[in-house]
Structure formats: structure tokens, C-alpha cells
Amino acid sequence: MEQYNVVIIGGGPAGLAAAKAAYDEGERSILILERDSLLGGILNQCIHNGFGLHTFKEELTGPEYAKRFEDEVRARGIECRLNTMVMDLSSDKTVTAMNRTDGMFQIRAKAVVLAMGCRERSRGALNIPGYRPAGIYSAGTAQRLVNIEGYMPGRKVVILGSGDIGLIMARRMTLEGAEVQVVAELMPYSGGLKRNIVQCLDDYGIPLKLSHTVVDIEGKERVTGVTIAEVDSKNKPIPGTEEHYDCDTLLLSCGLIPENELSRGAGVEISPVTNGPKVNERLETSIPGVFAAGNVLHVHDLVDYVSEEAADAGRNAAAYVREGNAPETENGTAVTFEGGIRYTVPSTVDTEKMKDLMTVRFRVGSVMKDRIVKVYANGEEIFKKKRRIMAPGEMEEVLLRKTELQKFGGLKTLKIKVEEA
Amino acid sequence: MEERNLICIGCPMGCPLTVTMEGTEVKSVTGNTCPRGDIYARKEVTNPTRIVTSSVLVTGSRTGAKTVSVKTASDVPKGKIFEVVRALKGVTVEAPVKIGDVVVSNISGTGVDVIATKEVE
Amino acid sequence: MWDAVVIGAGVTGSAVARYLSRYRAKVLVVEKSEDVCTGTSKANSAIVHAGYDAKNGSLMAKYNLEGSLMMEDLSKELDFPYDRCGSLVVCLSEADRPTLEKLYENGVKNGVKGLEIVERDRLVEMEPNISDDAVAALYAPTGAIICPFLFTIALAENAAENGVEFRFDTEVKSIGRTGDGVFKLVTDKGEILTKTVVNAAGVYADFFHNMMCEKKIRITPRKGEYLLLDHEAEGFVRHTIFQLPGKFGKGVLVSPTVHKNVIVGPTANDIDDREGTNTTASGLAEVMEKSARALKNVPVRKTITSFAGLRAHEDGHEFIVEESKENPGFFDAAGIESPGLSSAPAIGKAVAEMVKARLKLEEDPSFKATRKGIVHAAELSIEERNELIKKNPAYGQIICRCENVSEGEIIDAIRRPLGAKSLDGVKRRVRAGMGRCQAGFCSPRVMEILARELGKDQSEVTKSGGESRIIVGEIKDKW
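YS: structure for the whole thing
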């Protein structure tokens, strides 16, 4: 069986950043397994700009951002196997993968970084009633057809869901000659970034209807129309509010789901909130030596933060190989939260093993104005920051200093709380 | 005096901005939290601009790529966006393409080049 | 001149064609859709009923039992998935126990083997998620599940391999006689002359019956809506769980599928539109609500798709499998609603024998009863898989990552006799796009393979034939 110290599953932004960081940490036995024919993952079809402001201090398109990381990985001579699908991951870190030339093969890894990304929620999972004709696509599928294949998936479009991909595709379809009639959003707020609403909808006069959903899809062969309706506070359609749109296409942008089938197969513990692995301060899952980063861990809004998080995971994987499994300590303190926070990544922190300055990322469950985010250690406030507005669509973060947490000797509790200002 | 309401796109906060104008002159900007909002608002009401991204067809790709993604090398006037994409119709480039290669120079008389944003072999 | 023309390439028509292909005869199947298995046969519970339900003495009871007994051997001959998981009809109230006992007795009379009534304690052992209200159940160990697509495709493919011709996208408009014992079928693709006709037209079977027979029948499409749950729900139930009709009326079933999903449904609503396969908000809500009666915490949140099928319900609620008295040579296989899937082998065989008798057909010694299905690579060992990949590297390239379907399997699905021509055709044969992302990732790739294999432009590739094109043009073509 082949052996590698660090095997990275996925060659998208997370996998590339993890590989680079593991190398820079001194690790030389690294293998990236990527199912597509090229590195960069979903960034290859995200041809719009807005990437990299945080990482490179300039505004790049998706392919440009991916290329920078790919070049870094190539320059380090890190081995990548493309068109290679990982079929199985076992709890002892045996990776079973397959491609055309090598067939099915197994690799024993000392450490694994999960970087498989996420998928879009489908029409079926949303239980939208109606017919099942051609012309219903997830926004990402349409994005691939338009941006990679150069095809128009439709002419008259209705979009359900105001996630960023849906907003971006409203603009893309418009610029390529389609008529985007409306974007309907089930929630009373958009799941996308405000700047995308302005640049992708407002710029082109595309209406955004909040608290609306699709209640019927017509057309037996190809979509001929959809009906949308307003929903009440329980997200149930309100009779009498139906509006019909003639269209040939319905795009869905209704949320992303981390792809953790391999992780589940290995026995990694999954959070029911994020649908990603539960991780500690080193982004290590419930299986020692298996790390996770990027959208497989929790869905991000900005790729810059994916890269940052994945670099941590890559460094930690390299350190794990170097130092072996650190003796089990009981020091991991659960991160608790209050005030509308839905989850935190990581979910436990060990003050011995954390790095000097650690980011805890989280999301809130509703739109909140004028708040203060506070961190309490053993009940004592150690950090606070003001937030004018917090929304489910925008990831939040707090920074924790190792020295500060270690002052407590034994850290008993660590709580993040959103309070009214 | 005329008032225009905008949402700042400078950062994810999305401040609601009110711009007071007299003719084409900006008298005041309110609602912003930081100086970036002021700059954005003044530009947005006088000369709004955007980067335009799209893709064009590519021929002769060794890897079978059908398109190459492109962008305007810098902002173009918002009013020219559709002119820019129309001018890209029928544009075909020959592989190989490198990031930054000029696909169309001075597109639609904007003085801005359209450049490739993807490498195609 | 054909010896026999079968109208409809659903499971019944395909079964008739398969059993007819044993004889020396020129047989044609005409189908208005682009593929086999596109009507009722593709959207149902995927169950092989044990046969206790149908009224004793009815054709439904007869063919159900026969079909159910034939199915396992047939699944080996024709290589389609079959799993005798057993079924339970759950009684949710002591008051309903007499109904349960009656059902048991009816089953015994019908000749169903192994039936027993299991009491709550054993029921809970058999199905840990059973409702607290469940008092007992009728256990039928011969109840089974199959893949209705692969079953139908296997029948049709075996028929084709034995010389039966299939014409798709061909709609029969009328049937007449030319006087001398010859039938004339007028289709949208020209006229067809034949000595005999088999009416297996599903929800349209009454049209053809009524053209040929004095005693009129009426078929009403009875819609059934379903939810299909993700692989993550696998194991939620081990048997097909029916609800005994009781004070809440008829319930819905919850069953494992042969592909390790869980299916929940159906509703039953009579509609007018014979193509009305749309799901409805109320229907889906009803499925969820009713499923919760017999089982605790049905994981309906793990739904990956919902769909609706139309049962061909005839007013008399009985199969019509006979030769027309007025027009000998015209055979009905009409009113084939549940247990139609279970009965298909028996009906196919019976009708083929009727045609044989009418035309005095002889056995064809070259008839090949077996057929090999598309390899299901995900089920192979590493060694077997590597051998396959060495022979054909396309088996090493995964296209559908949710169901782990390789390019090799997709190519086989397209190239073999009666191969797939559309995304749905590929999906039904190899499950690409059937998984949790519902074709989000793989559809552009499958389109590419279809276009390449069929020598078409990608713009001509459809979801399910007709006007169901996936793409409508090139970027900027409107400018």
C-alpha cells in the first residue's frame, strides 16, 4: 500500500491552501486527490470578481484566485492526482481512491485533511410541488453551463433563493442575454451579501421578493411557468398572494450543504447544525489526525477565510505527523454560546494545544442590530466587539489569545455571547 | 435639491446612504459609518462604474476547454456594461491563453482592455 | 405485416413483448415516449406484493400471486435487483383487529405462503421505529422490493435481443380493421398493419379498448405522490410497512428500496389529466402526515426528491386481460393498477400465450431467456473493479459522485440495445443523477457523454425526450 504523511481530499481552495501550509511547515510527503480534471474546485466557474481582497489586497476573479494558490502548490512540487475520486476513507486513515490510469488504489495516510467542499440543496430537498420538467437547475449547475460550457440554460428566468450564487447568476444570465424576472427568497432577509444585491439585482432592475417562495412549477417537458406566493411567519404560503410568471427556467439558490459522506463513512462525528465535522482548536475531527477545513467544515461566504482556515488545518496536519498524536488531555473546553449564535467552529478549545492567536468563527440565526459580541472565560469577560448589524448570511469571528486563556490556569468554561448594545 | 438613497457596497455592512445633490454636484452624504461610504456614494451618483466579467469562446484547447473567462482590466462606466458584453459577442480566442492576455483592447471605446482571467492550454 | 403489435412500452407491454419473443413471430412495440418505462411503470411504490390484498377469485389476486412467485427467478434470469425483504401490514388499533384477521384469511385463500399475524412485542423487534399505537401486523415474508426501471428495461431489452422491434416517439392514434383479419394502426409516424394487437397502454388503455370492444371501460388516472429519502435514512425500516385501512382511512407505505433509499407514499387522488404527474403541496403534506401514523420520527427531512405517478384505475377495479369477443386478435392488458408491477410477469406470460394460441405460434429454439444487466461497479471488489478498469478505463472515471456511477456504466447504458437517449434515460439505467444532489453536479457531464455517444450536439440533449432540452443556445447569442 502506498504511504503518504498528509493526504488532502479535494484540490479546491481549501485543499490547495492546506497543502501549501503543510509544505511550509516542513512536511514533504503530501498528496492532493482531486476528482475534477483541474485544480481550483468551484472557483473555476466563479468568474466574477470580488475574491482575494483579504488575502491579496486586490480584487480577483475566482479563476485568478485559484491560479495563485495552484501556482504556489506547483512551485513546491506537491503531488496532485487529478480526475481521482476518493471512494472511501476508513477510521485508520486508509484512503481508497480511483481513476482511469491507476484503477482503484489505497493509500495509508498519517494525517488526512478533509477539503471536499459542499453541494447545493436540490429542488427535491426543498419539496417544491409541481411538475419535473427540464429547465430547473441549481444556480451552480447553471453557472457551470454558462461559464465553463458557454451555453444558455434558458431565456426567461425566475430564481428562488437569494444565496450569493443565485444573485451572481441573476447578473450573469442577464449579461448573457436572458431576462431574469424576479428573485424570490423564503426568508425575510437575503442569504447573500448586500453588495451582491446591489451589484447583481439593483444594477439591473431585478426585483427581490423577500418572504416569497415557489408554490408551483408548470410545464411537462420544459418549464413554462412558475407561481410564487408570499409566506407567513411560519414559511407557509399565504393563499391569495400567488403570482404567476411565464418562464422557461427556474434557478435554485437555497443553501449549501457540506459534503461529508466520506467523513461519515470514516466515523467522523458530524454537527447537526453545520452538517460538517465537529472539530477542536486544531480543526481536528473526532478521529485523531483527520482535519477539516473550508466548506466541508462549515459553509463560508468568502473564499479568503476558507484559505485562512485551511492553512491552519494544513499546518496542524503537518505538526500532527511530526509530533504524533499528542497525549490525550482532558483540557479541551467546550465552546458554549448564547444570544442567537447557531454554532461555533471550533467547538472545543484546548489552551495547551491552541495557537497563539486563534479565530473562532460562528453564525447567528437571525438579523440583529446593534449588538456586542463578548467572550467569557470562566465567567470573566475577556473580549468584546461591537456589531452594528449581524445576519445569518455573514460569518462572524472572534479572536482568542492563548496567553489570555492560559491565565486562567484551568479553563473551565468558554462562552461566546451576543448581547444587546 | 435632490436626494438619492443608496446601499453602500464597500463592505458587508451595507450602510443605507443618503446623498443630497444639486444638479450634478454632491452637497452631502449621510448614513455612512466610515469614509469608504462617502467615497462610494460620491462616485456612485456622479460616475458609477463596475468591473465587467464574462466569458468568450476559445478554440484549439488541448484540454478541451470551450470558454475562457475574461474581465475588464479596470472599472468601466455602469452605463456601458451591456455595450461591453455585446462587443464580446463573436469574440473567439485561440488557445493557449494566459491570465492577463488582452482579449479585446479598448472595449467599446472605454479605454479599458478586456483581459483573460483563466489559463487555457 | 406484423404478427403482433404491442401498444405501450411500460412494464406490462415489455413483459408481453418478452414472453412473445419466445415464439417465432414478428413483434413490434410502439411507444409514444422516447424510452421504455416512462409512465406508471416509472413512478410507483416499487413493491412486489405478496398477494394477500386482492379479492379472492379476482384476476388481480391470480396474477399477483403468480407474478410474485415468478419474480425472484426472473430477477436472476434478467439480472435486475430484487430483494425479498418481507412486508408488514400494521394494525394501529384493537378495534381494527377483525380487519387484520380478514386480510390474513383472504391471503390464505389467495394461496399466499408464510402469512402470519405478529403481535406487538415481535413487531417492535422486527421494526424498532414502529408506532406506539401498533398492536399487531400481518407479516408476509414473500413481500419483496424491486427496481421498476431496471425490471422494465430488462424485460424490454431481453425482448429486443430476441428480435422484438421497438419504435419510440410513435403514438398510436387509432385502430381499425381492414376486413380480412388484419388490424391497421394509424400512428403519427405512419400506418402499421398487424395480425394481432396487444393493448398495454396504461392510463390510455380505455381509448384503444373502446375502439375495439362493445363493452366500454373507463380509466381514471389516480395520482399517487411520493417522497424518496436519502441513503442516510437506510435502515429506518427493514420491511415494507403498510397501514391496515382503519379509522383514518388508507394510509401510506414506508419501504426500503433496492437502492438503499427509503420510499414514502402514495396518496390517491383521481384526476382528469392523463399526464398530470405534478406533485402538490397538499399531497406531499399528506404523505408526511400519514407516514407518521405507523412509524415514529420518519426522517422526511432527508427527502431528496418527490414525484407523482398515475395509476390506471378502471371503474371495475379489476385487471382486464382478455381477447376481444368482437375483434378476435385484439388483446387487452388494461386497468393494470396496483398490483400491476407484481403481476407483470404473469400478465405478460398469459397474454403471450393467448396470442400464441390465436396465431398458432411455434417456440423459437434460438430464444435466449437470460440477459446481463449493466455492471454495477460500486458493488464490485477492488480486484474486480481493477480488472474492469484495465479493460476499459472509463470504469475508473466517476461521473455521478452521489451514487458513484462511472463513465463506463453510462456509456454502456447508452450503447446497449434500447439504450438511453436522455438524462432521465441514463438516470433510470445507472442512477446517475438519482442521488442526493439530484444531478446538480453530473448533468453537464452526462450531457457531454450523451452528445458524444449519440453523435449529437449538446444543445439537442434532452432531459426526457420531446422538447425537454437542457440548454437553449449559446452565451450572448441574443445580442
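YS: worth flagging: Residues 59-78 of chain C form the longest helix (20 residues).
IM: good catch. Also The mean pLDDT of chain C is 96.
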